[in-house]
Backbone:
C-alpha cells in the first residue's frame, strides 16, 4: 500500500496488533524489542532489532531503513529518539516532545492545565520529604494520592495516603522516584476514549467508553459508556481539546474521571494504542491499530472511520489476564469461543499471573445481552440470552394518558406489551392540566430512546395530537370513551388531525390494538418483533379454529349454554 | 487457545488469512510452500517447510510435530497425504478422499449426481478423440464446454466448442489432459456460498452471494446476492446438501449457476476457504478463515457465527488484480483507503499482471451505496453517497387502494413520500374484487422488504383491516370519503378493528398524514427519517410563523384580500 517502512519501539501486544494492521496493508514493519516478542511472532522479517527501546544504539539500528518510527509504549528513551532524529531526519510519531510531556505524569498535567484542560489538582515534590507532603495534605486534605511521575502503569507507582500517619510509609514505598501528590478524586465512573490526530492536526474521536478496573488493571470496557448524552458530549470535547494540545500525530488513549457533579477531569493520556480501544477491532469501522498506522504514514482517514459499524450495537471488552494457575485463563477463552459473537485475541505470550495474555470482544445489540455473555465467559454463569435484542433496561414504548381515569382502558395495552416482552414506561401527561410537562415529555422522548408513543385520552382528546406536534416519533392515539357521546368525541378529536401531523388512531377504548400496533412498528427496526407478531397471530388463529371445532362438535345450543 | 499445531499445504493468500486467524487464537501454524510465501510472511516460525505441496518428503516433514494438516489449495498430492496419514495417524481436513473427489472435476460431478445434487450435465472423454466429442455434441448440441478434469482454475482449462468446426482446436488447446464435455449452461447469475462442516457432520452456511467474473477471474462479490428469497432458500438447501455428501470437516466454497427458470445447479466446489468468502472478514460474525481453523481443530462453532454482523448491511468484495503496469493496482487501493467503510487486504505478493494481489471489502447499509463506493474505487467515478442509507432500489412503503377512484386522494400521500425520498410502490388491491391478490400481497409484503403499508379505501372499507390481518407489518388506513355519509362510514370501517388486529387510522382523505406517519415509522429503523421529519416540522413551523408575521404586519383585512 505504502512504501514507507515503520519501525516500532516495543514488541508487546499493542505492537502485535499494529503489525497485524500493517500486514494487511503491505506496510513493512520492524520491531525493536528483546527476543521473539509478541509483535515479532507475526512478522517473519529478518530486520527486527533485538534490544531495548531505551538504548540509543538499538534505536539507531531500528531507524536504519525506516521511514517513520512509532512507539507502543511511552517509557522509551526520548533523548535517544531526538538524537536519532537529528542524525537521520527520520519522522517520529508521536513526536518525541509529546512522549516527553506524557511520560512524566506531572509534566503532562501541567501541560494540560496550561491548555485549559481540567485535570485532578496536583503538586510536585521537590525533595520527597515528609514536611512537603504534610504541607500539601493541609491544602488538599486526606486521603490523597502519592504518585510516581514516571514509569507508572497498571496502578504501579501509586500509593494512597489515608492520613498523616501514612506519609512516611508512602514515601518509603515510592522512594528514589520523582513524585507528586494528587488531590483525592471521588469519581463515580472512569471513562476513556481513543482520539486520532492526523498530520494536519485534525482530531477524530472513537466512541466514549466506560472502563472498569480491578486491582488497578483494566478489567472490562463498556461501549458506548452507559452515561447520558450530555456526559458523552462533554467527555468528547474535553478529550479532543486535550489531544489538540499535543503536537504530532497518531492515536492517543484518553482516560477520564466522571465526578458526581457531572464534571469530567482528564486522568491521564497515552500517546499510543490503548487497552480501552481494543473493542474497536470488532465494533468500529477502522480499528485503533489501523487508524494509528494510517495517521503516522499519512494515509487517508475517511469520514466516519471511528464510528461503530452499526449505531445500535453494544460491546464489552474483557481482558484475559494470566491466572495464578498457569494457562487456566484459557478456560475463559474457551467459553468465549462458544459464545455467539464473542471474539478471542491472544497475544502469543506465556502465562504468568496477572499478565495481559489477550482480550475478548463481545458484541450484541443490547448491553444486557453483552453482560449476559460476559457473565458466562468470566464467571461461567449459565448463558440465557433473551431473544429480544433491544436493551431491556431502557423503555422502547411510552404509554401516556390524560388522566388516571383512563388507566383501566390503557392498562390492557400495557399488559399486551408485557406479554410481548417490550420494555415500556407508563405515566400521566395531561395536555390541558400539565401543558409544560407534556412539552418536556414530547421534546425529550426521542433522546431517551423511546421509539413509539401510545397516548390515550377522552372527550376533547388533545394529548395524542399535541404530543405528535412536538416529536418526530410515531404517536398512536387511543380514543377513550367518556360518559357522553360514546367515545365518538374522542375518536374524532384524535383521528381528524390537520395535514402535517399524523396520529395513528385505533378503535375506541382499544388499547390492545395500540400496543399491537406499537409492536409492529418496533418490527421496522428489529425483525424479532415481527416474528413475535406472526406467532401471536398464529396463536389467535388457532384459538378461533379451536372454538370453531368445538362449536361444530357440540352444536351451537350446547355451546351457548357454556 | 489450543495446543494443536496446524500444518497448511500451500502458502498463498488463503493460507495467509488462515494464519492470521490462527495467530489471534495462539494456534501454532506451519506452512509448506516454497520461499517466503504470503502466508509465511506473517508467521515468524522457524518450522515452516520450504518445498512443494505435491512432494511426499515435504509433506512428511510438515506432518512432523503437527496435529492436523489442512490445505489452502486442492491441487495437492492426495496419495502422498494418504501415505503420511497411514504412517503417522495424523488428522487431515479436508479428508484426502474429499480432496481426491473434488480435484477431479468430473469425479466431483459424478459424486454430486450420485447424491441427488443438481449439476450441469457432463460426459467424460475416454480417449480425447474428435469422434467422441462429436458424438457428445450430437447429444448436447452446440455450443458446449470442453474442460480439463484436473488443475483447472480461474478459467484455465476450459474451452468453448462453438460448433463442430472447433472440436479439433479445442482438443489441441487442452491436449494431454484428462477431459470432459459439459453441456452449455445459459445461466443468468453465478451464486456462491461458503459452507462449514463440523467434525460431527453438521453444516452451517454463510449468506448466499453473487459472484461476477471478468476474463474468467472472480472480479466482484455481492452480499447478500440480490435475488429473491425463494432463490436464496433453494441455493442454501442445494449447497448444504452438497457439502453433507462429503466426509470430513472444514470450510467449503460452493459455486452455483442460477438458470432463467429459477433452477439452480452446482458448478463446482472448493474444499477450502474461497475468494467468494473474503467479505466474511468484515461482514460476518466469524470469518471463513477462523471458521475453518475452528472446524478442523474441533473448537466450538456457536449459534449464528456465519451470520452478517447486522442483517441490514450489504457488502461488495472487489479483487485487487495485478495491473499490466507493475503496482498500478495500488492506485485503486489508495482510493479504497479514502472510502468510508472500505477495507483493504494486501497479500504481500509482488505485482504481476492478473495476479491476485489483495482484495477490498466495501460495507454499507444499502447495495446502491456499496455500488457507488465500488465505482469510485474501481473506476475512479466521483463518490456521491446518498444520505439515506436504505436501499433506494427496493420500495420500503407500499401504497395500495381499493379502486382507482381513490387515486386523487392517495396520490397526495405518494407525493409526500417522494418529497422525503422514501422509495415506495403504488398499486390497486381490492379486498372485495381481488381477494386472492390481496392475500398474496399481504403474505409477501414483508419478504419483499416492505416496512409499512398505507391502504386507502372508501365505504365499507375492508382493505386496511384485511391486509393487517394477514401481515405482521404496520398498516396505516386512510378513510376515503365517498358520495354519502361524508367518509364517516369509511372511518368507522377502518378504525373500529376488533382487538388483535390494529390499523393505524388517520383522518378522512388525509393521505398526507398517512405518508408522514409512514416516515415516522421508518424512523424506528433508521434515524435519518426522524431527522428528516424534524426538518419538515421546523419548515412547517417557519411557514406558519411567516404567515403570522405577514398577518400582523399588513393587518387582517389586507391579508384577507390576497
Residues:
Amino acid at each position: 500500500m505504502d512504501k514507507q517502512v515503520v519501525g516500532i519501539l516495543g514488541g508487546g501486544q499493542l505492537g502485535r496488533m499494529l503489525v497485524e494492521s500493517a500486514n494487511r496493508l503491505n506496510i513493512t514493519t520492524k520491531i525493536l524489542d528483546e527476543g521473539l516478542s509478541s509483535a515479532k511472532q507475526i512478522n517473519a522479517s529478518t530486520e527486527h532489532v533485538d534490544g531495548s527501546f531505551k538504548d540509543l544504539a538499538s534505536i539507531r539500528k531500528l531507524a536504519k531503513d525506516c521511514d517513520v518510527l512509532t512507539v507502543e509504549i511511552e517509557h522509551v528513551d526520548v533523548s535517544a529518539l531526538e538524537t536519532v532524529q537529528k542524525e537521520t531526519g527520520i519522522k517520529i510519531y508521536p513526536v518525541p516532545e509529546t512522549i516527553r510531556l506524557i511520560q512524566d505524569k506531572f509534566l503532562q498535567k501541567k501541560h494540560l492545565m496550561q491548555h485549559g484542560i481540567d485535570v485532578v489538582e496536583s503538586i510536585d515534590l521537590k525533595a520527597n520529604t515528609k514536611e512537603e507532603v504534610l504541607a500539601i495534605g493541609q491544602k488538599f486534605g486526606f486521603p490523597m494520592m502519592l504518585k510516581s511521575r514516571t514509569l507508572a502503569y497498571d496502578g504501579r507507582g501509586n500509593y494512597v495516603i489515608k492520613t498523616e500517619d501514612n506519609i512516611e510509609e508512602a514515601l518509603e514505598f515510592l522512594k528514589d522516584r520523582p513524585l507528586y501528590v494528587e488531590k483525592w478524586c471521588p469519581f463515580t465512573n472512569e471513562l476513556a476514549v481513543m482520539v486520532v490526530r492526523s498530520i494536519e492536526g485534525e482530531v477524530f474521536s472513537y466512541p466514549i467508553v466506560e472502563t472498569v478496573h480491578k486491582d488497578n488493571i483494566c478489567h472490562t470496557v463498556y461501549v458506548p459508556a452507559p452515561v447520558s448524552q450530555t456526559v458523552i458530549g462533554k467527555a468528547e470535547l474535553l478529550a479532543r481539546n486535550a489531544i489538540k494540545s499535543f503536537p504530532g500525530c497518531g492515536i492517543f488513549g484518553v482516560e477520564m474521571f466522571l465526578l458526581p457533579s457531572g464534571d469530567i477531569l482528564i486522568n491521564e493520556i497515552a500517546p499510543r494504542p490503548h487497552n480501552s480501544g481494543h473493542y474497536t477491532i470488532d465494533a468500529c469501522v477502522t480499528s485503533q491499530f489501523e487508524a494509528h498506522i494510517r495517521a503516522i504514514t499519512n494515509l487517508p482517514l475517511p469520514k466516519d472511520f471511528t464510528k461503530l459499524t452499526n449505531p445500535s450495537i453494544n460491546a464489552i471488552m474483557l481482558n484475559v489476564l494470566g491466572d495464578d494457575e498457569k494457562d487456566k485463563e484459557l478456560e475463559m477463552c474457551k467459553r468465549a469461543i462458544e459464545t455467539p459473537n464473542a471474539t478471542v485475541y491472544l497475544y502469543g505470550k506465556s502465562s504468568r499471573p496477572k499478565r495481559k495474555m489477550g482480550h475478548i470482544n463481545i458484541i450484541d445489540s443490547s448491553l444486557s445481552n453483552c453482560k449476559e455473555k460476559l457473565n458466562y465467559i468470566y464467571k461461567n454463569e449459565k448463558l440465557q440470552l433473551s431473544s429480544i435484542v433491544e436493551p431491556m433496561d431502557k423503555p422502547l414504548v411510552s404509554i401516556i394518558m390524560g388522566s388516571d381515569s383512563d388507566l383501566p382502558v390503557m392498562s390492557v395495552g400495557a399488559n399486551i406489551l408485557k406479554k410481548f416482552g417490550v420494555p415500556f414506561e407508563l405515566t400521566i401527561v395531561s395536555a390541558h392540566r400539565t401543558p409544560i410537562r407534556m412539552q418536556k415529555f414530547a421534546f425529550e422522548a426521542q433522546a431517551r430512546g423511546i421509539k413509539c408513543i401510545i397516548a390515550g385520552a377522552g372527550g376533547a382528546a388533545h394529548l395524542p395530537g399535541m404530543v405528535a406536534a412536538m416529536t418526530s416519533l410515531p404517536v398512536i392515539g387511543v380514543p377513550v370513551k367518556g360518559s357522553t357521546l360514546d367515545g365518538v368525541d374522542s375518536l374524532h378529536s384524535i383521528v381528524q388531525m390537520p395535514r402535517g401531523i399524523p396520529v395513528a388512531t385505533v378503535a375506541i377504548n382499544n388499547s390492545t390494538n395500540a400496543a399491537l400496533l406499537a409492536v409492529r412498528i418496533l418490527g421496522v427496526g428489529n425483525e424479532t418483533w415481527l416474528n413475535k407478531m406472526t406467532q401471536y397471530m398464529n396463536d389467535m388463529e388457532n384459538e378461533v379454529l379451536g372454538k370453531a371445532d368445538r362449536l361444530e362438535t357440540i352444536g351451537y345450543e350446547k355451546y351457548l349454554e357454556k
Chain B touches chain A through 87 residues (CB under 8 Å). The mean pLDDT of chain B is 93.
